[in-house]
Amino acid sequence: MASYSTSEFKGGLKVMLDGDPCNIVENDYVKPGKGQAFNRVKLRNLMTGRVWERTFKSGESLEGADVLDLDMEYLYNDGEMWHFMKTDGSFEQYAVDKKAVGDNAKWLKEQVVYTVTLWNDNAISVAPPNFIDLEVVETDPGLKGDTAQGGSKPATLSTGAVVRVPLFINQGEVLRVDTRKGEYVSRA
Amino acid sequence: MTPDSWRPGATLDTLRRRAVLLQAIRDFFAARDVLEVETPVLGHAGSTELHLDALSLDARTPAGRERLWLQTSPEYHMKRLLAVGSGPIFQLARVFRDGESGRRHNLEFTMLEWYRPGWTLAALIEEVAALVGEVTGRSQVPLRKRPYRELFVEHLGVDPLIDSAESLAALRQLAARHGGAQSADWSRDDCCDLLMSLVIEPELGQGGPEAVIDYPASQASLARRQVDAQGAEVAARFELYLDGVELANGFDELTDAAEQRARFDEDNARRRQLGLDPVAPDEALLAALAHGMPPACGVALGADRLIMLALGLDSLEESLAFDTLRC
User: Fold this and answer.
1) Sign of the C-alpha dihedral computed for residues B231, B234, B236 and B239 taken in this order
2) CB–CB of B189 and A57 under 8 A?
3) Which residues of A34-51 are buried (b: 16+ CB within 10 A; e: fewer)?
4) Do B102 and A55 touch (CB under 8 A)?
């Protein structure tokens, strides 16, 4: 991989730091008038999701990370791994482990397209679309006519996610959910 | 290019107020009988300073094809005017520093630089604060002046002027803790620069201008060196801060040609160590100093930063018609 110097650090650039691939979030240039220039850099460690703050002398460089974000359709879970397939017509499949899927396991629905991040051709994370339509498999019976009043109740969705929904929602309905906040948006 | 990137970064209202502030600066000096001068942006000599990258270009001049440098400050030319007896002079100059861009930096910027022959550094510090007060409406009486070492002791618990292995280890550790820096092999000055920028600076000049004095001798640049009250060698140099922003840097100017040549050589030796190209010393400046420059104090102030603070703006690009991204 190419290496990148501090002046090339832009949001979204993928670099290696302490052995882990990282995504550059922010790069701030500071310099005392007569002194050494520095770059204060915020990087998200793509393995752990943690944000690191590091200061480099301007002109230092980091090796690029071979990281790719690819669209892949979720196929099935075999009890241990989650299997995805590229949407480019190659039918190429990737098995993703629990560490990479993490909390997003609760948003995985067959035939939906997810963003799978590959590092050196291994899947390291899975991101769901911002909005996804899921069926309610369990909730208290809906309250008729209660469409204007506030109030909410928990509902379990087909993927296992639990979200707060309005009281009028019934089992079997399909809902649009915001996966970033884990919130009900509307009936689908 | 985005569809809107032809537009200025500053609003028209900002540009109108900027013009008023530049006029206020000129009025300030006119009232004090300081002569406005203009010197060339291009010069035959670059800056030897370790942490300044000057831009250069090839030009056809009366002498033929030559490499000329874009100034990083108007200092050398202005000192040559002092050497022929100009008396007090000021300039609003365009200067260029390669690689410098950020919220508080732009590759090309306006520097307000002035010289006071026969003045003490203390008198010049007061004048800088008076100018800042006049332009921003923010003043602090009496002006706070803090020695560099005292700030380090207060904020970080380490005295950077004690030249010991322990204090160097402590500075490296602090740079790692506060900056997340891999600072195990950093020099004392690099650690100090990082800690000054990240930890101390943001606290300086809150509520009104504040000066830092008695810099480490290793950071003297073109300032005279002297001994402080505790017997350590320090630079006769100050910086002025407002709202955590470094605004100005001033010296009791070095006027000794031999010492000046030695500093140029020192810079170039360090440049070579770091794998940087050495820069030929400015022989015209050295000749002027040999001829005799009167003792003088001088200061350079970032005019765009001053305007940014005066107008309550958050970044330099909002105070400039077109920053380097838009030019």
Assistant:
1) negative
2) no
3) bbbbbbbbbbbebeeeee
4) no
- Stretch B115-127: mean pLDDT: 97
- Please check the confidence at residue B206 and state whether its pLDDT lies above 80: yes
Q: How far does the CA of residue B37 sit from the closest CA of chain A (Å)?
A: 23
Enter the DSSP assignment of B200. I
**Choosing among B193, B196, B218, B249, which should be mutated to test the A contact, i.e. which has the most A CBs within 10 A?**
B193
Range with the poorest average pLDDT among A130-144, B234-248, B261-275: A130-144
**Apex B246 CA angle, B44 and B299, nearest 5:** 50
Per-residue model confidence as pLDDT tens digits over B301-325: 999 999 999 999 999 999 999 999 9
Query: Nearest-CA distance from B276 to chain A in Å?
Result: 12
Tell me the per-residue pLDDT of B182-203, one tens digit each, with 9 for 90 and over: 999 999 999 999 999 999 999 9
Whether B51 sits inside 8 A of A53 (CB atoms) is no
Find the residue in B nearest to A34 (Cα): B51
Top mean-pLDDT range of B3-7, B39-43, B215-219: B39-43
Domains observed in chain B? 12-143+208-319 (3.30.930.10)
pLDDT at residue B221 in the model: 84
Long-range CB contacts (< 8 A, 24+ apart) of A38-41? A38/B179, A38/B193, A38/B194, A38/B197, A38/B198, A39/A6, A39/A7, A39/A9, A40/B179, A40/B198, A41/A6, A41/A9
Would you put residue B24 in left (φ > 0), alpha (ψ -120 to 50) or beta? Answer: alpha
List the single best residue of B97, B171, B182 to mutate versus A (max A Cβ within 10 A): B182
ipTM of the complex: 0.91
